[in-house]
Amino acid sequence: MAQKNSKTRQWIALAAMSLGVFMGLLDVTVVNVALPTMVRSFNTTFTNLQWVLNAYTLVYAVTLLIMSKLGDMYGRKKVFLGSLILFVIASAINGMATSLLVLDIGRGVQAIGGAGMMSLSMALVASNFSGRDRGLALGILGSVIGISTASGPLIGGYLIENFGWSSIFYVNVPFGILAVIMTIIYVKETPSYGKNKHIDLGGMVLSAAGLFAIIYGLIVKESNPHLSWGSLEVSGLLVAGLILLILFVIVELHVADPMVDINMFKRPHFIGIIIVAFALGAGIYAYNAYLTALMQNYIGYSAVQTGVRQLTMSVWSLVLGPIVGILSSRYSKKWMISISLFVGGVGFLLIARVIGPDVSFVDLWPGMVLMGITNGMVNPLLNTTGMEGVIPSEMGMASGLLNVFRQLGTTVGVVSLGLIQDSQYENYLNGHLGKISNMPAPAVTGLKKALVEAGPFSGHGVAFSSRISQAPFAQDFQRVVIKAYDNGMTAVSLTSAAIVIVGGIGAVLLLRNHVESTEIPTEKRN
Length: 526
Description:
It is built from 19 helices and no strands. With 526 residues, it is mainly α. Among the domains are: 196 residues, Growth Hormone, Chain: A (Up-down Bundle); 57 residues; 63 residues. GO terms for molecular function: transmembrane transporter activity. It is a multi-pass membrane protein. This is Major facilitator superfamily transporter. InterPro entries: EmrB-like, MFS, MFS_dom, MFS_trans_sf.
């Protein structure tokens, strides 16, 4: 009876941690859907609202490792719980925000809470479960990670259409309070590994500053696609970030109690997991933004209609997670990961093949299903495989590193795919706008400039505006704009296919089928 009660407490603890992770990751994507409503509510522009997104992305990425280390040193439950409470308070403040400044600051504070929950959840699950139950629990957590990132358009669209933009923040409050209560009662604390150790303040500052500079540099490039990589605004930040991270590694090699054990990066298996995490972010997660734009801006689905159709991807995370958790104890995780990534590559190729002016969901769903299967398989396996061979005192940091590279992959992917789409879109416009009959040269120049400034996401709005629709060249012009967008979207799909296939090859070459127990000290592992 006691054992049964203990098992029940474990699974309730998993529910508490999963709820926190779901909220934290959902808030990375759900705000995208709310931006048009916020523009009207705050009487501002999309440009001014950009920091509602960027504040969360930046702070979330730069605090992941810090929160991981604090959890390892002082108890993961304590830091997870504190992060959860901070997230709930910030969510309430965001919902009440009457100015963009308050909302931007609130999003940054919310991101600290989200980073703490995300970075420690995996390590907490690994320490609260053992044996086969650990693989199943990590698989379920992986399902939550996968479905939370894919369900933003559906959940956000429903809440905004029915309750307004503030509801995407207010909804976190009751569920967050429930998660706090469940965490206090059911989650077991881990040992505090920081006894007799000093906080590596230098490492924390350097890692945060380095990641901030690199990610902010990428954000600047994304927001200003026509800035060259050599411009001071972009290259200055990227170079500064790289220098800071090199200094971080040097410091970590020489301090007595480093923030990150650099020896972790000497293990091919761990490098392979990082490559997979990066490929998942840069391939699958980054592509979601472009797929959503295709479905909403060009096919014409509403946010809710888009979210419902994207269930063909996200539902697989819910279905496959527990199954993968069980299968991972019987079959090679290395080959399950690599084959799943190759399946995703095929999905992207199928989408690239059908993109055209008349594309619809009927054409897209086979590729979307394969993408969903990849996400549903790889995310849980990333968790279980990432924890293999990691000693208990490093589990939080290992989890943090996986999340950093997944988030970095997403950021790099969004920027890189955007630059590829912009380039192909503009090239097509340059080659075809001048060939439209009955279109005066001044109109070609002016509209080309307007389309390039609007970008592929918003070019549809320019082409189908009421003023343009009355022009004698309207139909030919609109056809060129749509084909230019399709040209860029095809290139984006092919690039995403290449990213996940490379990730699959990395898994084949670097992952190991058998990694020694987490109980074995680092110095004995080879």
